[in-house]
Amino acid sequence: MIKNYVVLAFRNLVKDKFYSLINILGLTIGVTCGMLLFLYVADELSYDKYHEKADRIYRIVSYIREPDKINKWTSTQPPLVKTLKQDYPFVESYVRFFGNGRTMFRLGEQKFYEEDVYSTDSTVFDIFTYQFLEGDPKLALSQPGSIVLTEKVAKRFFGKNEAVGKILRTDDTTSYKVTGVIRDVPKNSHFTFNALMSLNSNQRNADGWGGFYINSYLLLSKNADIKKLEAGFPGLYDKYMSSIFKRMGIHITYQMQPLTSIHLYSKFDGENNGDIGYVYTFSAIAFFMLLIASINYMNLATAQSARRAKEVGLRKTMGSLKGALIAQFLTESVLITLISLFASLIMVAALLSFFNQVSGKEIGYLELLSPKFMLIGVAIVVFTGLVSGSYPAFYLSAFEPAQVLKGSFKARGGGFFRKALVVTQFSISMVMLICTWIVYQQLRYMQTKDMGYDRDQVLTIDYQDQQPHDKYNAFRKALLDNPNIQSVATASSPVSNIGGRVIFNVESSTGMKEMAFKPTVIDHDYINTMGMKIVKGRNFSEDSPADTANSVLVNEAAVKRMNWKDPIGKKVMLGTVPADGKNPPPTAQVVGVVRDFHQQSLYNPIEPLIMIYRRSSGVMHIKVKTKNTKETLAYIGQKWQEIYPSRLFEYRFLDQDFESAYQADELRGKIFTAFSALTILIACLGLFGLATFTTEQRVKEIGVRKVLGGSVTSVVLLLSKDFTKLVLFSFPIAIPIAYFSMHKWLQGFTYKTEMNVWIFLGACAVTLVICWLTVIYQSLKAALANPVKSLRSE
Fold first, then answer.
1. Taking burial as the number of CB atoms within 10 A of a residue's CB, which of 427, 498, 526, 716 is the most buried?
2. Torsion angle (degrees, nearest 10) of CA 530, 535, 538, 541
3. Which GO terms describe its cellular component (predicted)?
């Protein structure tokens, strides 16, 4: 019986090649995109789950509540987790990570710079799961001066030779013995590194509760009481921190974050995580693509009801039961789905490398053989094959044989249903078109917004040791001798990543007041080099040595926070006042106000900033002219090697840092756009098939109209009118859905674009044009046909 169903289904597919091709093509595109999006979503949901103890690992984050704001940091004080381990028996272990920043290593005469180098506790490999290629995880970081490298870094340093036992020296001449090599940290990790060093004695034994610079994780025992642990956080403040922060009006508490929820749910300053909203969005897109492809099948199947009516009538007359007819039509839909699924698997395999490139993922081909991927394939067959085939099956099998065979049959109900499906398709397509438009407008807004500084043609060189400071003036003078170099400046951090906060004692209307501000150290050339503006007062002066101790600059946000009417001359103590009041820090005065500029990406608000003057700092900014850039870079490299022969010359352009901050959203935007376009394409395929069928059904009517003098234009308008009405009906459905969806999405941005009415009107116009282009070919073909051929049999 099943064999007969399959044979008959295959014959029907071959018989109606055109409609079968449209259905298979639409389903193939829908299933391919659905599977790729499933792989993306599955990867996003897999973050940090490879750790064997992932369900018991928690990160602690800090909430610092000032009188006028709340700061949310992923960092904590060094003694926090150590204290929790002592106070709570169900805290099995802890680990802390201290960022060392960009670090230069020496191996003999070779020098290497490495990013993402951290110092950590020896318990790191007891808590987290990393695969060791060399060394013993239990002993790897147990001794001071130990370092564990990732496979990529080990190969860079030592090639194919064994790394364990080798000695690396940092640029401050400290020696580290390689005690382990691990596989590269999987990309589906919220936290990655290239090397781990053992904490030195100062970091390990740090007991100060005033500084937040350690990332802290706890390993809890099974069935641990999380609420009991969190209930004890206020007591920590009272016991260890109130003496430091209470007089400033600052209160501190903490939150426990499950490891596996950090990537999708954590939104703290400086983090570049994923977003559960995108997971929901891409899952919805995958569902809608399959839904639209299914709608195509239902539309065309019900539209062809007149063709299949005689078949149904004859089979019922010959004794076929309704259940058998339903089974036959479902078999056809499942067969189409299976063919599409097979084609989709080939397409997914062919497109996976390109998809990884576009999405920034590293999904392997083995994922295509995983049980969860196979399960999604089965789910697609069940959903698309059975759900989309169910309505046509029940609809067609309900025909009365007597009416069909007498020629008095008229299909009822299918027309309204088809119209509803077309409206649904174009409503979904229009929602995605509007959303894509707004997503790209927001991305463009962030990429083109005035940041308050000039990032074009600015080189950044990062150095941290003392040697470059000692020779900075000589290097600066050598660079300025080149006419293609406009200016040179230094700062304590790149302009696009000014982080951290420090307590300053600042003059207020009620006297000196301790408050947290972002600090940065700059020289006198910094403001001009970065194209910033002094809106009040003056800049630091090279001719005023006293500026290093007596003067500071502030930004407009600091003026606003302090409610200063005249900020010039206001006092700022460069440090906190000791509790005993003895040996207070030096007091400086505000000499100028800098126009607000973004200290990080546009995901972060502009914060109050205090700028301190030093003649040189750890980050160098070099403004070069646009012409002869290649020769200018070579000149800078040559002078660097002459003056700093023991150091590598490495640089990056400031606009590259800027672009990297939005890379993740740009990739998501590309994915969203591509799949939105494909969704519209699937809808157009169905509309094209439906227009073709409708035109065929009305060919005699068109012939009569032309014989009676109807013009080509009138025929085209006649055939396009019904579809235009359906698309117009989709507008009042799609616009509110798109508006409220994107309004909510934009709330996640501190700085956001406006949803202009022209976006919605433009989307309506584009949708109409797409509709007309889809049906106009068939309309023109019918209108230009010779009416004699269509009326010959009449």
1. 526
2. 0
3. plasma membrane
